[in-house]
Amino acid sequence: MNWIEVNVQVTHEAVEAVSDILVSVGAHGVAIEDPKLINEMRNSGIWDYCGIPEYENTEIVTLSAYYADDEKLQGRLAQIEDELNAVEERIGKFRFGNTRFRTVSEVDWANEWKQYFHVTHVGESLVIKPSWEEYEVKEGEHVIEIDPGMAFGTGTHHTTNMCMARLEKIVTPDATVFDVGTGSGILAIAAALLGAKEVKAVDIDAVAVKVAKENIADNGLADKIDVQEGDLLHGTEGKADIIIANIIADIIIMLLEDVPQKLKDDGVLLASGIIDDRVEDVKAAAAENGMQIDFIDQKGCWIAMQMSKVK
Predict the structure, then answer these.
(1) pTM, whole model, 2 decimals?
(2) Rounded to the nearest 5°, which phi and psi values hold at 76?
(3) Structural domain of 244
(4) Domains of the chain: total
(5) Of the candidates 228, 241, 170, the residue with the CA atom closest to the CA atom of residue 201
(6) Residue 303: which H helix or E strand, with range?
(7) Average pLDDT per 10 consecutive residues for the chain, totaling 311 residues
């Protein structure tokens, strides 16, 4: 299958709003090329950017998202343009030039991520290692070998990072974990490596299910993590000690209606992928469904919430 890359160049101020639009229309992730950040990393020497030239123009941020070239494509592209125009009507022009498109094969799409994705340390013990890189494991570390392929989830995005750091604090040896919208399976793998007894991973996207199963098998966890195609919690049986939902605010709000019935009385919901201007909406939905906010983490404009049932 071919994929269409949608490429939008915007101001720094518009990055989060445009990312939210691209994801809400159906992208599994957004690649962000921020020249200001790349220059900082290049000059610090902590990333593999030392060999590239320094950007002179740091005001233009390039966002790239990928959509399947199928019967839904034209509707998605039209919706993206409509929503971008609507935002510009409210806040003024933020785009540089027109939205650009190009066809990308599945193999090329997967390779696009490799230039941005390197070994990453998360929390106190988790290490994310791309399948194509070498890494010497240190004592006490849990290494996740991941190849995102066509699914969202390298673990380097703030939303996933915050979930992984929270999982370090709350996973127990007898925990049953539901990972809703598993993507590449990275959070399900993290939960299992941290000691969860049982992990059930669900995604509505058949491609994501395939990729998650491959990553789980590559990490030797096929006997501990069950992956199914399903719509949110409708693809799970029983109740969980921990429910992970690293999605977007609108889907989390929908999910909250079912969480109390699928979560044990002393269980925890980790909800991430929430842009900061949607926090109050999610808080209101949580209260309406008998959930309380126990912790809020923030990185950049992204929010993660840890919730439990109101006692």
Answers:
(1) 0.65
(2) -65, -45
(3) 118-309
(4) 2
(5) 228
(6) strand 302-309
(7) 88 87 84 78 48 71 90 92 90 90 71 66 84 81 74 65 92 95 90 95 86 91 92 85 91 93 95 88 95 92 92 83
Retrieve residue 176's tokens: 């049953």
On whether both 109 and 43 belong to a single domain, the answer is yes
Strand 120-122 vs strand 126-130: parallel, antiparallel, or unpaired?
antiparallel
Burial letters 140-174, b for 16+ CB under 10 A, else e:
eebbbbbbbbbbbbbbbbbbbbbbbbbbeebbeee
Q: Of the residues 72, 95, 113, which one is the last residue of a structural domain? A: 113
d(CA 171, CA 161): 15
Report how far residue 76's alpha carbon sits from residue 82's, in angstroms, rounded to the nearest whole number: 10
d(CA 172, CA 160): 19
Closest CA to 120 of 154, 152, 151: 154
Per-residue pLDDT at 151: 43
Q: What confidence score (pLDDT) does residue 46 get?
A: 42
